[in-house]
């Protein structure tokens, strides 16, 4: 009986060991995410907290109220360096960010709350792939497994972190406007853009982060390179849905698709919104929001007037996310609101069109809730998101510089009358929902896997430690070409020698014949 009890206890212990990953201590480092980045990071935090893990998160956007989450607010404001996104469309914002990042990161790292953190007390560390690179200085010596989170897809630098091979021959670089299949010129440009982005990261950005960190005496003078430390990361969680990626592309096992984590079934709307949308009759409603990062009041007045004019002629009702309670010339079929439950609106059967800036989160939510998209990209990856969505047949894109009453009116009419947009987005919505595991389960599974298997070294790509010319066999191809050229050269030499000999013989025999005559 006694033996039996001991065995039972041992068995229970074993069982609980096998499942010990409940209640792990997890540290999330993402001091710089914008609101939209934090939609992704925050969903990861909430998912793990609901699962019973204890999450401490370094953030500048505290917003999660949860028993199992402790937020450390570093209170870093990105606004001063990204002033007015309408006046700084295109890549200006990104260039400014790139210049300011190293200093900002060092400043965040110097905070007492950060320096007091005892890394080795945690079971797992998440780090956000956006400006947080100097924090790798904290992680140089630790054996605690790490997971990197990318709020976008796989940016070029992330390929190297996970040892994933990038194929500029058929995968257009993130942020570019090219589509598969690429012409020769596009492949050339794509390759050059790729090289440029890698070089910028490797020879300018990361060294300047290391320099700023060392100058502030926050990183050791003889610290390993950030790239080397970052390569310890067990997995990279990306905000992509594999079934929606065009073209499909190869991934190493360490890249985990967690896209659509922000998407959830629609819930009933607040009373006033519900009755407003339901009162739109057969015409239905249009939802207009430029996301959480772009300030609506930064929109130039001439653009605002175009929207107001065109909206006033539409039979549809329009819900417009706007940061003031009213505006000049507001038509009766338009309702303004500062904050709106986006997914509950998109999920309402009477909402037929989503006018958006084309951010990744909004795009994914539109696809999930099967609403066609009219995109006005402002900056960063929004342009390329919209080009992809337009090519997929679920969207139309209007460049701010082309915006006119006629164009806006005609595009809205076309999208609401031609059923192809709705049909295509319905199909893509089905693809997005038809996955073996929900994105939440994916996050829980691979996070606990990294804890159980101590960073999962068996799943790491061998490419991580290889030089680029070895990865692509450039040295092998070059030697094959050199050998072939050498053989060709020898062949030609021999051929010439043979021909000479032959000709000489016929010549001499010919001469002999002549002499005989
Ligand atoms: C917090 O974690 C505990 C286990 O550590 C779990 O039982 C509890 O349900 C979690 N709380 C919430 C609100 O999910
Ligand atoms: C908007 O476009 C539709 C169809 O293209 C057209 O019938 C309508 O007259 C236009 N409205 C205005 C105000 O131009």
From TrEMBL:
Family: Belongs to the UDP-glycosyltransferase family.
Membrane topology recorded in Swiss-Prot or TrEMBL: Single-pass membrane protein
TM segment ranges: 476-499
Record-given protein name: UDP-glucuronosyltransferase
Top-level EC class: transferase
Domain of life: Eukaryota
Pfam families in the cross-refs: UDPGT
Compartment annotation: Membrane
Molecular-function annotations in GO: glucuronosyltransferase activity
Gene name of the encoded protein: LOC108679911
SUPFAM superfamilies reported for this sequence: UDP-Glycosyltransferase/glycogen phosphorylase (SSF53756)
Catalyzed reactions: glucuronate acceptor + UDP-alpha-D-glucuronate = acceptor beta-D-glucuronoside + UDP + H(+)
């Amino acid at each position: 009986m006694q033996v039996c009890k001991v065995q039972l206890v041992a068995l229970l212990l074993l069982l609980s060991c096998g499942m010990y990953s409940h209640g792990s201590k997890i540290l999330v480092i993402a001091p710089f995410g914008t609101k939209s980045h934090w939609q992704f990071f925050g969903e990861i935090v909430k998912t793990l907290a609901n699962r019973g893990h204890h999450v401490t998160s370094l953030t500048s956007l505290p917003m999660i109220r949860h028993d199992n989450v402790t937020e450390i607010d570093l209170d870093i404001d990105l606004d001063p360096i990204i002033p007015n996104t309408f006046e700084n469309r295109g890549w200006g914002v990104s260039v400014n960010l790139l210049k300011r990042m190293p200093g900002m990161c060092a400043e965040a790292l110097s905070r007492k709350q950060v320096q007091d953190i005892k890394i080795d007390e945690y079971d797992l560390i998440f780090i956000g792939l956006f400006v947080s690179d100097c924090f790798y200085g904290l992680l140089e010596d630790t054996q605690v497994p790490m997971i990197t989170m990318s709020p976008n897809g796989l940016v070029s630098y992330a390929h190297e972190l996970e040892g994933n091979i990038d194929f500029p021959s058929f995968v257009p670089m993130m942020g570019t406007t090219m589509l598969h299949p690429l012409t020769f010129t596009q492949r050339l440009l794509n390759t050059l853009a790729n090289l440029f982005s890698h070089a910028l990261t490797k020879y300018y950005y990361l060294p300047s982060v290391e320099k700023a960190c060392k100058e502030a005496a926050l990183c050791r003078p003889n610290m390993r390179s950030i790239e080397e430390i970052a390569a310890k990361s067990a997995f990279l969680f990306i905000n992509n849905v594999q079934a929606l990626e065009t073209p499909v592309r190869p991934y190493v096992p360490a890249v985990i698709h967690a896209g659509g984590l922000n998407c959830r079934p629609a819930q009933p709307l607040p009373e006033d919104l519900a009755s407003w949308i339901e009162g739109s009759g057969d015409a239905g409603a249009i939802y207009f929001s430029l996301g959480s990062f772009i300030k609506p009041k930064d929109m130039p007045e001439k653009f605002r007037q175009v929207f107001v004019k065109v909206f006033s002629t539409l039979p549809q009702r329009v819900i417009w996310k706007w940061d003031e309670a009213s505006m000049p010339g507001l038509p009766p079929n338009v309702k303004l609101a500062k904050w709106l439950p986006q997914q509950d609106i998109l999920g309402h059967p009477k909402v037929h069109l989503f006018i958006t800036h084309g951010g990744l989160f909004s795009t994914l939510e539109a696809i999930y809730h099967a609403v066609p998209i009219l995109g006005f990209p402002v900056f960063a990856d929004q342009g390329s998101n919209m080009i992809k969505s337009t090519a997929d047949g679920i969207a139309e894109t209007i460049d701010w510089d082309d915006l006119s009453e006629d164009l806006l009116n005609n595009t809205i009419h076309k999208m609401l009358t031609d059923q192809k947009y709705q049909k295509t987005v319905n199909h893509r919505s089905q693809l997005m929902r038809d996955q073996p595991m929900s994105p939440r389960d994916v996050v829980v599974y691979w996070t606990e896997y990294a804890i159980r298997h101590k960073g999962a070294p068996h799943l790491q790509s061998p490419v991580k430690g290889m030089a680029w010319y070895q990865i692509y066999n450039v040295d092998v191809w070059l030697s094959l070409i050199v050998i072939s050229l050498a053989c060709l050269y020898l062949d030609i030499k021999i051929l010439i020698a043979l021909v000479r000999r032959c000709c000489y013989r016929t010549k001499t025999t010919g001469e002999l014949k002549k002499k005989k005559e």
